[in-house]
Design a protein that fits this description.
551 residues; alpha/beta; Elongation Factor Tu (Ef-tu), domain 3; 19% strand
Length: 551
């Protein structure tokens, strides 16, 4: 293949014209000491807090953590044993970023975004800083849309909304992770992208969770970020921030996301370790003074983003406007909130189009492990004060076979009924109070006092409701099925069913409604409430099923 001389000249001329000289300057320092995941570096006078630094000889990245007068404390994101005293350390001018995007879905990665599942490299051109400012008040909207967990005890009494932060708290081995995994599994038909962050967990436990997600088909819409107990403290510290950045990408695309942090008490311990190694002053329980800020700036990033609308010229298709928020002057007012946009559009006789990148949400389910039920310890009280409610799992209930072991006394959702469909509000409105009264009566009855018939009936119904709220792992229940079952329980239709047969009754009743009375189920699903027309049909269905029940 021959090139003409004038072609070569034109290419060279274009290159010369477009040439821009630039000086790439980087600071270079020397490692003074290294150990336990921390390096002290001399000479990086212009380094930024949180800036990535490189150790070229070891091929390892670090993060500027402590800026001191004569040196910089660097946390090492990798094998610190490869770094030795006197090694070179360079600044990069960049904050720590992780790869994000659709290519991450279905993958198991470390906190830096490197694949751990043996499925080859992750090809994505998108990345986000691991720490970004939380959305402002004007960019948010109230939490109103439910995030269904599929767990009766939670959806009925401590509901979670999209954009909410609901803490799962309890001792070791009380089912905290099981609730989070069941919630992820239940998002299969809810169009929610999930991120599970395993922070400080055992490798065997994480492998089992990944396998459970794969077996149930939940890995198809989940990103798993892993930093096990064997990983260095710096990786455990950044893991929740990295997972949040991956979820935020989808939130800012207008999608709903769920992020589980399992667990933040181990992240706090890793942060304490790093802080003590760089000699930051210890405070209560030897944690640094800013451990509250460490968790608050993470959890404040969870939000339900406001929907933004644009007014589209009446001779222009609103569907086309969804591709872009401003097209050739046709979209001439916006972005606005829906109320103002509707008012202006009505005045001008034009149409509305929602900006597709608005209205997303990031729901957080942080997990905190307590010691001997001590919810008033430092880290638990910190996270309780940041979140919008907590689900407290009680060991005594767990070992008594009540699973999930939700303590209705101190479990609360500060969003409440706003995060429930109307039908669930109707059937579960007084359930929490009823169960709290039942627990008091149960304690009283154990004294051996003779009970009047009304009290005995209340106790009998309470035992059946406790049995009804039990649920096996990996079997989240559709919210409409929950509504029908709880309706039967709260309205007394189970009062004559033996306690030990309640679970069998529930299973057979759900199957009966799906196969023989699908129109009732579809009606509740459509209306999102039990209307005056639907209630007699539901009652008739229960009356029809009861004689058929085989206990």
């Amino acid at each position: 293949m021959k090139f003409r001389s004038d072609e070569i000249v034109s290419v060279l001329q274009a290159e010369i014209e477009n040439y821009r000289s630039a000086i790439d300057s980087r600071e270079v320092g020397k490692v003074l000491e290294v150990g336990d995941g921390i390096a002290r570096v001399y000479g990086l006078t212009g380094v930024m807090a949180g800036e990535m630094v490189e150790f070229p000889k070891a091929g390892v990245t670090g993060l500027a953590f402590n800026l001191e007068e004569s040196s910089v404390g660097v946390i090492i994101l990798g094998n610190y044993l490869e770094i030795t005293e006197g090694d070179e350390c360079r600044t990069t001018g960049k904050l720590l970023r992780v790869p994000v995007g659709p290519a991450m879905i279905g993958r198991v990665v470390d906190p830096l975004g490197n694949p751990l599942d043996g499925k080859g490299p992750i090809i994505t051109s998108e990345s986000r800083p691991i720490e970004t400012p939380a959305p402002g008040i004007a960019d948010r909207q109230p939490v109103k849309q439910p995030l269904q967990t599929g767990i009766k005890a939670i959806d009925a009494m401590t509901p979670v909304g999209r954009g909410q932060r609901e803490l799962i708290i309890g001792d070791r081995k009380t089912g905290k992770t099981a609730i989070a995994i069941d919630t992820i599994i239940n998002q299969k038909s809810e169009n929610v992208i999930c991120v599970y962050v395993a922070c400080g967990q055992m490798q065997a436990k994480v492998s089992q969770i990944v396998e459970d997600l794969r077996r149930t088909g939940a890995l198809d819409y989940t990103i798993v970020v892993v930093s096990t107990s064997a990983d260095p403290a710096p990786m455990q510290y950044i893991a929740p921030y990295a997972g949040t950045a991956m979820a935020e990408y989808f939130m800012y695309q207008g999608k709903d996301t769920l992020c589980v942090y399992d667990d933040l008490s181990k992240q706090a311990a890793a942060y304490r370790q790093l802080s003590l190694l760089v000699r930051r002053p210890p405070g209560r329980e030897a944690y640094p003074g800013d451990v509250f800020y460490c968790h608050s700036r993470l959890l404040e990033r969870s939000a339900k983003m406001a929907e933004k609308w644009v007014i589209v010229a009446k001779d222009f298709d609103a569907a086309q406007a969804n591709e872009k928020s401003g097209i050739d002057g046709k979209v001439y007012v916006g972005p606005l909130d829906k109320e103002h946009a509707e008012k202006l559009a009505h005045e001008k006789g034009n149409k509305l189009a929602k900006i597709p990148t608005s209205g997303g949400s990031l729901t957080a389910l942080p997990i905190i492990e307590t010691l001997e039920g001590e919810v008033s310890a430092y880290i638990p009280t910190n996270v309780i004060s940041i979140t919008d409610g907590q689900i407290y799992l009680q060991p005594s209930l767990f070992y008594a076979g009540v699973r999930p072991a939700v303590d209705v006394g101190i479990s609360v959702s500060r969003v409440g009924g706003n995060a429930q469909i109307g039908a669930m509000k109707q059937v579960a409105g007084g359930l929490k109070l009823t169960l709290a009264q039942f627990r008091e009566l149960e304690a009283f009855a154990q004294l051996g006092t003779e009970l009047d018939p009304a009290t005995q009936r209340q106790l009998d119904r309470g035992y059946r409701m406790i049995e009804l709220l039990k649920q096996p792992q990996f079997k989240p229940l559709n919210v409409i099925d929950q509504v029908m079952v709880l309706y039967a329980g709260t309205r007394g239709y189970l009062d004559k069913v033996p306690v030990k047969s309640v679970r069998a009754w529930e299973e057979q009743f759900i199957k009966f409604m799906a196969e023989q009375m699908p129109e009732v189920r579809k009606g509740i699903e459509k209306e999102k409430k039990i209307t005056a027309d639907l209630e007699p049909q539901l009652q008739k269905a229960i009356d029809t099923f009861s004689p058929q029940f085989k206990g």
